[in-house]
Amino acid sequence: MYRPHRAVLGETLWRQLCSLAPELQRPSGSTLMRQGEPGTHVVALSSGATTVILTGAEGESTLLAVRGAGELFGELSVLDGQPRSASVIAVRPCRVHVIAGPAFKAFVTEHQLLDVMLRHAIARVRTAETVRLELATAPVSRRLASALCRLVETAWPDAGSVPVEIPLTQEQLGQLIGASRKAVGTVISAWRSEGWVQTSPSGGLSIQNLYAVRQQVQRAM
């Protein structure tokens, strides 16, 4: 199971890492990291939620992942000197620490964390492979239910059983699970008639019955 950097490093090292830079507030919609820019710094996410967006050669955007508190962004770009491979956008108000590249590399060296960072990167790749297998074999209803459950677990861990507001459009959810907007809309329409979800005028999704959505992951298998 994928774990954020905070869980991998442990609370003590995570706090020490964050102490390298002051905490900043970033509103929803802010760009925390932009694809193609040089790796001059890393961003440690103390609270909030973000989307990871890949922009193609013709300007098309693909939602790769949603990440929550305890994540570190841009570490590989700083370590290998390559440009950012994707953009990171805040979808909830965020508290972040923007840590300069040299300070981050010195921290990694001091605490012998290079192997840890590389293993974490490999874990992300393996998680992505698992998701790709799911996209290739599972029906849209299961893929959507599984994706929503992952979103809640990683970005809204305090949601419990109360309504959860997911600020992603049906088009973005389709990008996340490899389905068309129409296919996602068909599933959401059926769930809405059951009272499990509601849609907002802005295009977001409100999960009213998280238990029922979780059950769809098993029933659709």
UniProtKB/TrEMBL annotation:
Pfam families (alphabetical): cNMP_binding, HTH_Crp_2
Gene Ontology molecular function: DNA binding; DNA-binding transcription factor activity
Classification via InterPro entries: cNMP-bd_CS, cNMP-bd_dom, cNMP-bd_dom_sf, Env_Response_Regulators, HTH_CRP, RmlC-like_jellyroll, WH-like_DNA-bd_sf, WH_DNA-bd_sf
Boundaries of every Cyclic nucleotide-binding domain copy: 27-108
Annotated ranges, domain HTH crp-type: 138-211
Keywords, sorted A to Z: DNA-binding, Transcription, Transcription regulation
GO cellular component term of the entry, any: cytosol
Protein name: Crp/Fnr family transcriptional regulator
